[in-house]
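Project outcomes to date are best conveyed with an example. Our students and postdoctoral researchers have been running inverse folding experiments weekly, and each run begins with a structure described purely in tokens. The record below, which covers 205 residues, was selected by the lab manager from last quarter's runs and is presented without edits.
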């Protein structure tokens, strides 16, 4: 079974980079909202972004971008490593977001403590849609990396058709080519120098 959409290295690269950007976007949004009571105010609203609530999302996004860039630069063997790293980054993003969805209170409590110094929440933690989006991005990254790995064999075949071995020119071929390009009767500077070193007249016939 083949997957034409990922038989191209450039398409796999574009998808991984796009997913890395999306992971950053979901992490920058507000994930959690709650309230606390302080000595000055009875109700203070506290919010937590995705990167604050789940640092693994930001880390995974960075790794996805790095893996995408590496995919464009590395050779045939290292591409498998880049795809494996991309898949691991997707797992990290999805797992980090899932942990917050499973129990958002610890992340909200930590955010409240950093913002106000109070850790006693006075309301339930409201969870936005963004953690779910992060889970979807992480899963998509794993799928893209897997499909790219299946299609990577075709990258080699496609690039091989455009590669041509170029044999280095020997000195004789280079001299012959240079001689062929010179007008008849014109003196070659290398030959002239050799003649001079032997004490001969380079212009003599």
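After processing, the design step wrote out the following sequence:
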């Amino acid at each position: 079974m083949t997957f034409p959409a990922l038989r191209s290295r450039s398409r796999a690269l574009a998808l991984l980079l796009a997913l890395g950007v999306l992971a950053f976007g979901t992490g920058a949004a507000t994930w959690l909202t709650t309230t606390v009571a302080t000595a000055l105010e009875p109700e203070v609203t506290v919010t937590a972004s995705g990167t604050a609530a789940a640092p693994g999302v930001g880390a995974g996004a960075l790794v996805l971008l790095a893996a995408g860039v590496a995919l464009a630069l590395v050779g045939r063997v290292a591409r498998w490593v880049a795809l494996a790293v991309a898949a691991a980054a997707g797992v990290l993003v999805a797992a980090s977001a899932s942990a917050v969805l499973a129990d958002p209170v610890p992340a909200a409590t930590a955010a409240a403590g950093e913002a106000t110094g109070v850790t006693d929440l006075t309301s339930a933690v409201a969870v936005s849609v963004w953690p779910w989006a992060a889970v979807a991005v992480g899963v998509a990254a794993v799928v893209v990396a897997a499909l790219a790995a299946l299609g990577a064999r075709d990258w080699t075949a496609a690039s091989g058709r455009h590669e041509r071995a170029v044999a280095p020119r020997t000195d004789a071929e280079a001299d012959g080519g240079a001689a062929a390009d010179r007008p008849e009767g014109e003196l070659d500077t290398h030959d002239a120098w050799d003649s001079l070193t032997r004490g001969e007249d380079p212009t003599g016939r």
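The mean pLDDT is 80. DSSP finds eight helices and three strands in the chain. The training component of this project remains on track.
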